[in-house]
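agent> step 3/5: call structure_predict on target 'J domain-containing protein' (Rhodopseudomonas palustris).
agent> reason: downstream docking stage needs a structural representation; sequence fetched in step 2, passing through unchanged.
tool.input:
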Amino acid sequence: MATDPYATLGVERDATQADIQKAYRRLAKKLHPDLNPGNKAAEDKFKELSAANTLLSDPEQRARFDRGEIDASGTEQQPRRYYRDFAERDGWSGYTNGAGFADFSDLSGSEDLLSEIFGRAGRSTRRGRGADIRYHLELSFLDAVNGGKQSIVLPDGTTLEVNIPPGTRDGQTLRLKEKGRRGAGDGPAGDALIEISVLPHPYFVRKGDDILLELPISLKEGVLGAKLKVPTVSGAVTVSVPKWSSSGRKLRIKGRGVPRADGGRGDQYVTLKLVLPKKPDPDLERFMSDWQPSDSPRQSMRV
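tool.output (status=ok):
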């Protein structure tokens, strides 16, 4: 039997969505398989944690769980049915009819009525499309840009493989056909709707299909120029920094941006940033003291 998802995450039943995400991330950092190699207990707890988060992070599924319509594994709960539910239909009731129990003497009529009731119910549920299910998936910046395969742990402990297309955007919803709830009878299953959240990168920024990068360079590299290895979303490349490059100068690396659906790619734009040494350099200070620049970078400014 699946554990109560609220207890798994350690939150109250009235917890906000922000509280749920905060609790999940805190526990995921402790139980993630990458941090506990070979620890089967931690792996099982992480699966349980992921399943609880999947259920409660979807407002619709959470509401259905709270109402008792599904259990902690996401399985539909059948409502209890009583004879009164059928007997009181069509204006007939053994509980309210003046003839009381005498109504049961006409068995043929009862059989016809029950046959019609159950036949009608059977016909109405013979075929029906299953409900869609929403999931939330966090991706690293590079996984979203380059694409790949990711797994989502479902409330019942099974996993759903998700193919991430290259160039996936933050907030995008991926649709997996017929990976949702089972249909009624021979009806088709619903779809799984995967909402994507892309985590920020330490130094890459996406703008449309282009990638922006700020590249620190030394004073020497800026004055004399240099050939530098520059990171891109698809691997490092060598870039030539021209002589006399100031902070703010932009270099374009063609075709090293985000993959497009047509097979092309955006570009990467590198903004140079001059950075002085972390420790004072007496030689540099002496040189600068004796150096007389031919012009001032502020000469065009009017005061």
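agent> step 4/5: record observation. Residues 86-108 have pLDDT under 50 and may be disordered.
agent> proceeding.
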